[in-house]
Structure formats: C-alpha cells, structure tokens
Design goal:
The complex is a heterodimer of chains A (319) and B (323).
Chain A lengths: L1 H27 L5 H6 L5 H10 L6 H13 L13 H36 L4 H15 L2 H18 L17 H35 L2 H8 L4 H13 L1 H15 L3 H6 L5 H11 L2 H29 L7
Helix pairs in contact in A: 1-14, 5-6, 5-8, 5-11, 5-14, 6-8, 7-8, 8-10, 8-11, 9-10, 11-14, 13-14
Chain B lengths: L5 H7 L14 H4 L4 H10 L2 H18 L1 H8 L36 H37 L1 H16 L2 H12 L3 H11 L1 H15 L3 H8 L4 H37 L11 H9 L6 H29 L1 H7 L1
Helix pairs in contact in B: 3-14, 4-6, 4-14, 5-6, 6-7, 6-9, 6-10, 6-12, 6-14, 7-10, 8-9, 9-12, 10-12, 11-12, 12-13, 12-14, 13-14
The chains are: A mainly alpha (319), B mainly alpha (323).
C-alpha cells in the first residue's frame, strides 16, 4: 500500500510538472502586453518597462519558470496583477464557494443517480427502466449552461412573476449568514450540476447492478430467504458501487478545480469564475494557479479512487 | 464538463435496451454473416436508434439546405432587420408570420440562424471527433503494442491530457490565436483523444499476446503491418461505439466555448453563441434561447440515443451477457 502511494504520488508529480511547463509556455507566448494594460494608455515606455521589471516579465522564460516553481513549492503563488493581493488569497476566497457548490451537487447527483440506477436494474426493460433511461440521456445531452438558463427562466423568473419569489437569480451567500440563505442561493446551481451529472451514475449503477445481480452469491443470498430489499441493498449495491466510486472521485476532483459553466451562469464567484475572469484579463499568476489547482485536484482524486477501489473490493491489489 | 463518455459506454453496455434481440431462428442463418452485418441488423431493429438516426438525417439536411431557409423566408442569416425585426424599444420580436422563430437582439431571423448554426455544430462535432479518434487510435496502438519505454512516455501524455482542465486551456489557446473555426476544431480535437487512446491501449495490451499476432510475426510481417492490419480491426468495435458517443460531447463543448464568447467570430450563426446572446434577454425574449437551445438539445440527444443503440448492437460484451 505504501509503495503504491509513493509510486502514484511520484507519477502524479510528474504529470503536474509537465502541466506546469505546458501552462507556463502557453501563457508566456500569449499576446497582449500585461505591463502596458496595467500601466494604462497614457504611460510612458519607461513606466511600462518598470512594471515589466517589477513583475519579472523581462527575464528569460526559463528563469521566470524556475522562479515560479521555487516560490510555488514554498506556498507562494505570486500576486494578482490587478488587485495586488496574493494569489493564495484569491483562491482562499473563491474555494469555499466552489466547495459549497460541488459538495451539495455531488450529494444530489449521487443520491439521484444511484437510486434511479437501482430502480432501473431491478426490472430491466420495464417501463420504469425505459423512462429512467430517457430521463438520464435527456439531461446527459443537455449542455449545463442551457439547463442553468432554463432553470433560471422557469424557477426564478416565472415563479417570481407568479409572486412566488423562492429562488434568487444568482450570487452567493456565505454559510455564516445562515444555512437558509446559503442553500437558497445554491439550490438552482446544485440542481443544474446534479441533473447533468446524475445521468452517468444512473447508467453506471444500472449496468454494474445488472452484472452483480446475475452473480451466484446473489442467488445464494436469495435462497437463504433474505428479503429482496436486503439482497439488493446489502449484497448487490455494495459491490455494484465500485465503478460509481471511480466516476464519483474523478468528477468531484475535476469540479473542485472550478465548475466554470455553472459558476458563470449563476454568477457564483468561485474558482471557475475566478479563472475565467483571470483569463479574460490576462492575469497570468491567477490562471496558472487555478489550472494547477484543478490538475492537482484531479491527480489526488485519482489516487484516492484507486485506494477506495482496493478498500471496497478485496480482490483488487494495489501495485 | 467531462470529455469522457466512457462512463456511459461501459455503464450500460451490459444489457440490451431494445428488447427483441433474437438473432436468427436457426443457427444456419447466422453463418457467413460478418459481425458488422449482424451488428447492423440488430441496430436496424432498434426503434429508438432508428428514430434518432432519422432525426440526425433531418439535422444534416437542415445544415446542408440552410440556404433554403433564406429562400423561403427571404431573410439572409446575418441581415439585421432593424425596422421590421425589432420592437420600437429595440427589443427582439417574438415569433410571427414573417419571423417564425422570432428575431434576436439585432433583428436577425432566428429560424434562419438556427438552420445555419447546424453547420457549425455538425462540422465541429464530426471533424474534431475524427481528429481525436485518429490521434487516440495511433497513440493507443503504439503504447499498447510496443510497451516498455514507449508505453511509459505515452501513458504520461495520456495522463496529462486527461488531467489538464480542458476548458481553461482551451479558452487560453483560443484567446491566444483569436477565435476561428479551424482553431475551435483543432483545440477540441487535440484535447479529446486521451480517452480513445486509453481504451485502445487496454485492448491492444491483451490482443498483442494472441496467436494471430504471433502468426503474423512469424510470417515476417512488419510492426506497422501487424498494428494496423492485424490488430486494428479487432479494436474497431469499441472505437466506433466511442466515436458515436464522443460526437455529442464535442458538440456540447463547442457550444460551451461559444457560450463563453470563444466560439466563432460574429456574425457567424452558432447555437452556443446565440444562447449566449439570448441570455441577456431571457426574461423578455424566451424564443431567443429556446429555439437554438432546442436545436442543440435535439442534436445531442439524437446522437446519444443513436450511440446507445450502436453500443447495444456492436459491443461484444452485450452479446455475452445476453446468453
């Protein structure tokens, strides 16, 4: 187990190192003179040169890169070009919002997806199964920005017009101002993310449940006279959940780096929104940090998934 | 957004949704038919898949015959009807006898633009997927076949491509080069190959130990010949299934880039871009979002339902489980 962890961590570090170089090179060749933008239109060439020097942009790329890596390893990700705050602060401000969004949505899509998947698998090819398949594929096919806008139109706009102002049009309320307002602002974003993601879980659960229910030990369990509910939940679902766990880890990992679209539609100032804003402003320190953060989340999620795999399924050996 | 429809692919491969799948009444009838023919026959009996295919044909026709929409309505896609197509306050007009799907914020005919938008979605969907599948197949074949050092290096590239936050890097690339059709196609293509490579690699790892590969080698076949002539046909089924399921994902990604303002430069009609423009008017002009949105959803849904049918018909795993 320990050797596995060390190996995977080393491989993950290699991947992150490659990505850091890729991203650095990418933004280094990006056009648009940041120093000029910051200095303003009236600035003299001297001012621009001074700003360039201050930001270290006059150094050769490899020196800039080494400097970045050296500081990053000590936890210093540089300064936001435009707001004069450390990038770590920018991320620390945005992280709770993305976290609130992703955790809530993840609980919803997992519950919805697994429940529907089990319902489908209990009676394959029945009306319920077909209806749930269509439901799943419908939302799977739906771009999340479209679903977000439709939810805004019907559940915010039309309801508010009808005098039932339950949902706000967007924005975020921190948990500190109360669970009610916090959840109220997040329900529509949660629904958007959950409905779009749940489809995969429905199909995954259905497929692996059908595999498992055909196994001999399920027949054994049934023939012992255990109730059907218990057979399905205790014996079937437990081993059927392994592929679901894999997908779940990867999805949550990917989203923790910012649910870009959902955050944009509902104007939630999370990490996804921060990275989009940074991209439009050529705010390199923030972009590089968010890209690396998102990649790190995926790498760590993958390692956790593999460990969970071995925990859930004793047949899996880590090496 | 995940670029990996394999979750779906491996998920539901297990069971046939189509119900009636009795292959042939007697064993003899099966003899002499290729697996492809059998797959096609199964697919043809799948009503949902066939209806989806019909819808896809209609959408392709809509894209090809988009100029016809201009002929019928008399409205070119980029013509701004500022007098007749906007309300006195300059707001979009709802559906009427002259603008069947209403007008957008510049007084353009949404119906005509929806028809033209199909061209972008389909073109990007098909070409980007083609690029991704081509790269994925070559990388996967090479990694699985050669193993060792080649595999180690390629596997890291696959990891990088699967780990990198695609949307952010795509946006960065587009903002460097400026938006264009070519760059959209290339960016999506170059970031979607990793899952294909992973699937192909996994299959090739087991295939290369099989007798027919050994036989080919003892006959003096070269490595490329063994890879592309002997092994490749054996991985085509999952690749085809994956391809049909990747197209709708790519279409959604294209629409998403357009929604974020990084699609094709205006005034090109593009569903994602139209929805993005319509967002500002969603409380006053529902048609501005609903019609391009419906076209987009119908296209991706048809591709997914069809892909689901293709998987049931061609995935060998589904076969085993039915017996």
């Amino acid at each position: 187990m320990l050797r596995f962890l060390i190996r995977r961590t080393a491989l993950g570090a290699v991947v992150l190192w490659l990505i850091s170089m890729l991203v650095f090179a990418l933004f280094f060749v990006a056009p648009g003179d940041v120093a000029r933008t910051i200095a303003g239109r009236q600035a003299t060439p001297e001012t621009v040169a001074l700003i360039q020097h201050r930001l270290g942009l006059d150094l050769p790329i490899w020196e800039q890169y080494l400097g970045f890596v050296g500081r990053a390893l000590r936890g210093d990700l540089g300064y936001d070009y435009y707001h004069q705050v450390p990038v770590t602060t920018v991320i620390a401000t945005a992280a709770p919002i993305t976290l609130s969004l992703v955790v809530g949505a993840a609980i919803m899509w997992l519950a919805l997806g697994v429940f529907n998947g089990v319902m489908s698998a209990i009676r394959p090819r029945s009306f319920v199964d077909r209806a749930l398949t269509v439901f799943a594929l419908f939302f799977y096919s739906m771009p999340s920005f479209l679903l977000g806008l439709l939810l805004l139109y019907f559940l915010y706009f039309q309801l508010t017009l009808a005098g039932i102002a339950v949902f706000p049009p967007g924005g975020f309320e921190p948990l500190s101002s109360g669970v009610g307002p916090w959840a109220q602002h997040l329900i529509l974003p949660w629904l958007t993310l959950a409905l779009v993601s749940a489809a995969i879980y429905t199909r995954l659960t259905r497929g692996s449940m059908l595999d498992v229910l055909g196994e001999d030990y399920i027949r054994t369990a049934r023939s012992k006279g255990i109730s059907e509910r218990r057979v399905i939940v205790r014996h079937g679902l437990r081993s059927a959940l392994t592929p679901v766990v894999t997908q779940f880890g990867i999805d949550v990992g990917a989203l923790l780096g910012g649910a870009v679209i959902t955050e944009t539609v509902f104007s939630l100032p999370g990490i996804g929104k921060a990275s989009i804003d940074a991209l439009t402003q050529q705010n390199q320190p923030v972009i590089i940090a968010t890209v690396l953060l998102a990649s790190t989340a995926v790498v760590i999620a993958n390692i956790i998934v593999d460990v969970m795999y071995a925990v859930l399924d004793p047949r899996v050996r880590l090496h | 957004m995940s670029l990996d429809p394999t979750g779906m692919a491996s998920a539901a491969g297990a069971v046939d949704d189509t119900g009636d799948r009795a292959a042939a009444p007697d064993g003899k009838a099966i003899e002499g038919r290729s697996p492809w023919l059998l797959g096609w026959q199964r697919l043809r009996r799948d009503r949902v898949a066939m209806i989806s295919l019909g819808i896809l044909v209609l959408i392709v026709l809509m894209a090809v015959l988009a100029p016809l929409a201009t002929t019928i309505t008399g409205h070119p896609p980029n013509e701004q009807y500022r007098q007749t197509g906007l309300s006195p306050d300059g707001l979009p007009l709802g559906p009427s006898s002259s603008f069947w799907m209403g007008t957008d914020d510049l007084g353009r005919d949404i119906l005509v633009r929806v028809a033209y938008g199909a061209r972008v979605s389909l073109l990007v969907g098909v070409v980007s997927t083609g690029i991704a599948v081509a790269i994925g197949v070559v990388v996967g074949l090479a990694a699985g076949f050669f193993g060792g050092f080649v595999d180690t290096v390629l596997a890291r590239f696959i990891d990088v491509a699967l780990t990198v936050p695609f949307l952010l890097v795509a946006i960065a690339l587009v903002s460097i080069t400026g938006p264009s059709l070519t760059i959209t196609i290339l960016v999506i293509g170059f970031f979607s190959w990793a899952s294909v490579a992973r699937i192909v690699r996994g299959q090739v790892l087991s295939l290369r130990e099989r007798e027919f590969v050994e036989a080919a080698r003892s006959l003096g076949a070269s490595d490329p010949r063994i890879m592309f002539v002997d092994i490749l046909p054996n991985v085509l089924a999952p690749v085809i299934v994956y391809t049909t399921l990747l197209i709708p994902v790519v279409i959604v990604v294209e629409a998403t880039l357009a929604y974020l303002g990084l699609g094709l430069p205006p005034p090109t009609a593009d569903w994602g871009g139209m929805i993005s423009d319509g967002q500002k008017y969603y409380t006053t002009a529902w048609w501005f979002i609903i019609f391009p949105g419906a076209a987009l959803l119908l296209t991706t849904l048809a591709f997914n339902l069809f892909g689901d049918g293709v998987r049931d018909a061609f995935d060998p795993r589904a076969d085993q489980l039915l017996q």
